[in-house]
Amino acid sequence: xxxPAKLALAVxxxxxxxACGQKEEPKKADAKPASPAxxxxxxxxxxxxxxxxxxxxxxxxxxVALAIAQANDKKLTLDGKPVTFKMMSExxxxxxxxxxxxxxxxxxxxxAAVVGHxxxxxxxxxxxxxxxxxxxxxxxxxxxxxxTERGLKGVFRTVGRDDQQGPAIAAFxxxxxxxxxxxxxxxxxxxxxxxxxxxxxxxxxxxxxxVGRERTTDKETDFKAILTKVKAKNPDVIFHGGMxxxxxxxxxxxxxxxxxSAFSFGDGACTNEMAKLAGAAAExxxxxxxxxxxxxxxxxxxxxxxxxxxxxxxxxxxxYDATLAVIEAMKKANSADxxxxxxxxxxxxxxxxxxxxxxxxxxDRKDAEITIFRLxxxxxxxxxxxxxxxxxxxxxxxxxxxxxxxxxxxxPTPPAAPTAAPASGEGKKK
Length: 430
Fold this sequence. Notes:
alpha/beta
């Protein structure tokens, strides 16, 4: 065999061996369809996280956080996509100006909804900003009627109004405390002044003499000048519209001045913090909350909250339910788009930590309760629940109790307060 022929044969043999060594590639299985991409939905909380009432703001924030955590545990889907909720929390310092700055920040962040603020005086101006941006806002504590009386869509609350709370506490002052002369002090905020106006209006209607109306601020610490004026008029009861951060020192200073009058407060000062701020002077104070007491919250909520955050301060159950209302509306709309789920907020109906949650056309909670408390042995104790103008003794197992049931611990029962009247201009001052 000549050289070219040998070379050709060698090449042919080499190619054949190589071919024999190659394995046939298996056919690839058809790829599974990709899972739909998940979406992250931001629900904001806004409230005072620093300053004198930070304990209340943090309590509210914890309520929101718990609702979001539980929603994530349920692995919900919206429009066929897995959804993860996250919380963006901002400190409004209980200040209207800071609150509007916070509101704009949340709008710029394109949050889906805002659960907040704590104070009426902050919630009212902030809600204007949310409304313009088409973002719903729902408060678990703002009680001034103005919040929902302006006809703004997408503004809600899970607690009662001051034109419900005012008559309830005023009725107790008039009938149970037997007051003939009452002095009223407010802190000039939308909440404090608005509630004080409602209390004054009811008391005048009940023929109780208002012997003085004094003004302070929510930043004041020295109340002795005002209290000295009030002392000279010898009122049976002094009502303060304001927060516990001012109510506690005011009460303590009043006793130091020898004032013997009974003291009464609204929900801003209806906290166990009063015993810390006023000491022994707080014993016996009467106050109201725009909602059921913490111990009346659902067992499931209390167990979960206590395990994660400890003691409920005040309105955490109402901020929890406010968050659930937002999520329920998203589920009904099958969307986290505010333009789509906000209308569904008016249609939600569910049982939350604070009972059945539904809203009327204004965004107010239907059938909201007011609770009357007395501070005894260092903590506030519920006496009675007022709902739709009817007062019943508080029963620890379930509030409100049937009318025939005896009051817990023999506590006095306030008279039925009148059905809340439409908000007046008096409740709309800032």
